[in-house]
Amino acid sequence: MEVDGVQAVASICKKVDIIPSEFIRSENEQPAITTLHGVVLEVPVIDLSDSDEEKLVELVAESSKNWGIFQVVNHGIPDESISKLIEVGKKFFELPKEEKEVIAKTPESGIEGYGTSLEKEIDGKKGWVDHLFHRVWPPSAINYKYWPKNPPSYREANEKYAEKLREVSDKLFKYLSLGIGLEGHEMKAAAGGDDLIYMMKINYYPPCPRPDLALGVAAHTDMSTLTILVPNEVQGLQVFRDDNWYDVKYIPNALIIHIGDQIEIMSNGKYKAVFHRTTVNKEKTRMSWPVFLEPPAEHEVGPISKLVNEENPSKYKTKKFKDYFYCKLNKLPQ
Ligand code: OGA
Ligand code: NI
Known about the structure:
The protein is of the alpha+beta class. The chain is about 30% helix and about 20% strand.
């Protein structure tokens, strides 16, 4: 299937300094007008190597209640594993269009594959971004046909990263559980346990002649449980806080953790999914590698029953993840 990627649009626009109108945001979304400039937001930074587990539980819980986003350092994933992940993803996106299209999304592939603009935006606007989705864990959920064959080390780099990521994810689920009075295993179990799906996404944001008018990914919360993200060195992630959009300050080799909708639901609103978006850059290509930790399609997610009582009535419906996904993608009420 042919993908008329933003990468192709970008290479034409570079010459003329204008962008097609479908990429021009309305004034209430344009980053130049709606960003609070001159400040970078320092989201909480948590050192996962701290031996004081109680403190870690407290920090993860506080950050997830008050911010919905935090960064982790000393997370146990070797720097080399992260730079390999970045290198092979970059090589894939730098291949000629025809080679990338070998693994293009098709109507049958669902979300997996190489493509452009996932969600239908209500006003028909498009994000200045192309992407690739493929599952990286568990083995039974992997479709290698959506993984790049080129560069040849793509598979090894992704498998190594995914293996290390599982340890980080398990720790975070444990701290999130303990942080709201559950037993350590309960939050992960409610999210699908060992069947939890690790969905890798690569975002590729080409240089944009009018970064003041366009957005990469429009404002949203992730529908995952947690999202664990690695960015390249180009600024672009923004978070909405106190009625303003802010650039988020990155720490090299940290992992950026987003609380997604499913954790908010399971915690019955104690933890908050973070509202975020991305901007693009005039000269540089921005890339990011979020891994969405998703419940299996048929798995039902709702507020964990221990957290629901007379004073805390259930605030969310219990439904299969695939039904949640469908409604969110099509902008239907949940
Ligand atoms: C996303 C997303 C953020 C980024 O893909 O859901 O929010 O930094 N990406 O690219
Ligand atoms: Ni997101």
